[in-house]
Design a protein that fits this description.
The structure holds two protein chains of two kinds. Chain A has one domain: Response regulator (Rossmann fold), CATH 3.40.50.2300. Chain A contains five helices and nine strands, in the order ββαβαβαβαβαβββ. By secondary structure, chain B is mainly alpha-helical. Chain B has a domain of 115 residues: Four Helix Bundle (Hemerythrin (Met), subunit A), CATH 1.20.120. Classes of the chains: A alpha/beta, B mainly alpha. Chains A and B meet through strand 1, helix 1, helix 5, strand 7 and strand 9 of A and strand 1, helix 1, strand 2, strand 3 and helix 2 of B. Strand 1 of chain A pairs antiparallel with strand 3 of chain B.
Chain lengths: 166, 170
């Protein structure tokens, strides 16, 4: 028997000023069975929602009016007033060049999905954030999901050896 | 000797509540979707294709008008550039999703051309207009996929034109 995802048990927040893009994500999530999907166009509205209720997964565009998606992510992960520093965030954006991916990763993105996207790619990011939760790393310069996703042999000094585990 | 202290790292175990709540063996969608399920899901995405065509068509017409007006009126140039950049981004973002990758390609060329600009010269506005016209033709003729060699040659020509008139960037 294979594992299934019950999307009706998950609450989503879509932050995207582009109505068509937000609609595509909303339709996809609804088809999958999600019943709790909120759409907003600005991070300020997203924060308002996040302060009043539990959201399990955020899907955000990078290019937003006012505060952009990256500042939104930065506030979520690093602000002392953040409503939820651990919430999984999928960055869905047409800023797909390598430097954007690296910047988003270094600010604590959970998954990155380049536009134009297809259903398969969106589904795989959803599966990843739901079924493969990652450790969170907290240092003086980074707070977010573990960026070491591949287990590759490394024979240098282990800088995390003397780390504190929670 | 100056010994470097290893950075302090706190490793916080993964939060598993979401997984525990949503993953099961009876209800929902398989973690690994079968090809036919993926096909169905793709159809859901494509449902918005008509809305995309209508919305982009409207934005193209509006932006084109503004760019043409800005060619003759320097006061409108800042607004025309901002609107064109928005159009380039949204077309680049969604064209490929709805099987218009050529639109994405041309929009990307326009986005690069407009990056970090707050205004533009007359010629630069004409290059902007040519990009908008090309996207409009693709949309009006419903050129899906990457088009023929003619469309590809047009795309290359637009990118060359954009690079030729890229400076000054202000």
């Amino acid at each position: 028997m294979s594992a299934k995802i019950d999307f009706s048990k998950i609450s989503f927040l879509v932050v995207d000023g582009d109505k068509i893009s937000a609609q595509v994500v909303f339709d996809t999530l609804s088809y999958l069975g999600a019943t709790d999907v909120q759409r907003v166009g600005k991070p300020e509205e997203a924060f308002r929602i996040l302060r009043t209720r539990q959201i399990d997964v955020i899907i955000t565009e990078w290019r937003l009016r006012g505060m952009d998606g990256l500042e939104f992510l930065d506030s979520l992960r690093n602000s002392t007033s953040s409503p939820n520093r651990f919430v999984p965030v999928i960055m869905l954006t047409a800023h797909s060049e390598q430097q954007y991916v690296t910047t988003a990763r270094d600010l604590g993105i959970t998954e990155f999905l380049a536009k134009p996207f297809n259903a398969k790619a969106l589904y795989s990011r959803l599966i990843s954030v739901i079924t493969r939760p990652r450790h969170f790393i907290n240092t003086s310069t980074y707070f977010g999901p573990d960026r070491r996703r591949r287990q590759t042999p490394f024979d240098g000094p282990d800088r995390r050896e003397s780390s504190t585990r929670n | 000797m100056n010994e470097q202290k290893p950075p302090k790292v706190q490793i916080i175990p993964p939060r598993t509540e979401l997984k525990q709540r949503a993953v099961n063996f009876t209800k929902g969608f398989d973690v690994e979707l079968a090809p036919e399920q993926l096909e169905e899901l793709e159809k859901v995405v494509q449902r918005s294709s008509d809305s995309f065509v209508r919305s982009i068509g409207h934005d193209l017409a509006e932006t084109r008008q503004l760019v043409i007006a800005a060619i003759g009126n320097p006061d409108l140039r800042g607004t025309a550039i901002e609107k064109s950049a928005d159009l380039a981004y949204s077309t680049k973002a969604l064209g490929g999703t709805f099987d218009y990758p050529l639109m994405t390609q041309i929009a990307k060329s326009l986005e690069i051309f407009l990056a970090h600009r707050t205004t533009a010269s007359r010629r630069q506005l004409m290059v902007t207009q040519l990009h908008i016209d090309a996207i409009y033709v693709i949309l009006a003729s419903r050129v899906t996929g990457f088009g023929s060699s003619i469309e590809q040659a047009t795309t290359v020509a637009l990118a060359k034109l954009a690079s030729r008139y890229a400076e000054p960037r202000e």
